[in-house]
């Protein structure tokens, strides 16, 4: 095998969607498909989610929305978190996207550029990232509500910490801005779904949980990443491996060089911390992760592997992320474009 292979289990993704949909109770589960479905390939993954029953999709910006529309065809609603940015009117109109308007300026822009076109409204309930502040909302609420928004939403900053007081504070702020409007509401991503029914409202927005990541602890694993062994060498004790001579063999060692590195999203911070797997056996990375390769100590293996797995059943995105001092979201979305992508399953 010459190329590293990223295997993506579409059935695991749809199983995770169904599980998060069940956990969403009476609320409808949407699907967050921004950043190319967290790096897993929106053109394949979004249709699998639609086939499983997802009807409301969420992206970060309008051009992503247009790609999702091409993948899904007419029918599903596609909401854009960035709202209506300057220059986006054509793509929003053409692809039939629903911008989540974030400010009075966006509201004015949307009305002027696409009068009568669907929209939603995003509120800042305390995260201070995107959305209308309470005073903004007072200024436009009568007009905006009269125009019939499709969805009112906000986003939680600390939902992956169930005990954090910020959750209740944001819930109260969101209710204060949206109670009594009669419009469909959405507050929770994966973490918020797990906070329970108070946080569900009408529509939930799971992302990372679909793709097998924390905080959805019961997620089915979605990805396997198998790296090809380019070369194996025997080295005596005292020799070093990789840039900067950061690793020295303490015994005669067998070193495999794998064909992927930080240009493939396997960040240099994994140096000296991560491991790869040969079946059930872990093997430590040795030496610095290079741009296109990394070294592994395979001295203790009985056989000579052709590939080693850096993501798989024994080591998911969160485990690998923890070793590298980051989060599963970053590991997934950083996975590069040099992998052969193999999709398994899918409802089609
Ligand atoms: C990314 C994002 C989501 C999905 O979050 P996960 O933690 O991946 O489930 C939902 N809503 C907004 C506004 C987002 O930016």
From TrEMBL:
Keyword Ubl conjugation found: no
Known pathway: Amino-acid biosynthesis; D-alanine biosynthesis; D-alanine from L-alanine: step 1/1
Alphabetical list of CDD domains matching this protein: PLPDE_III_AR
One biological process term in Gene Ontology: D-alanine biosynthetic process
Catalytic activity, as annotated: L-alanine = D-alanine
Molecular function via GO: alanine racemase activity; pyridoxal phosphate binding
Enzyme class, first EC level, given as a word: isomerase
Active site (record annotation): 34 (proton acceptor), 243 (proton acceptor)
EC identifiers of the protein: 5.1.1.1
Keyword Signal attached: no
Family matches, as SUPFAM superfamilies: Alanine racemase C-terminal domain-like, PLP-binding barrel
N6-(pyridoxal phosphate)lysine: residues carrying this PTM: 34
Cofactor(s) required for function per UniProt: pyridoxal 5'-phosphate
PANTHER family named in the record: ALANINE RACEMASE, ALANINE RACEMASE, CATABOLIC-RELATED
NCBIfam families, per database record: alr
Job of this protein: Catalyzes the interconversion of L-alanine and D-alanine. May also act on other amino acids.
Family recorded in the similarity comment: Belongs to the alanine racemase family.
Protein name: Alanine racemase
The species this protein was found in: Albidovulum denitrificans
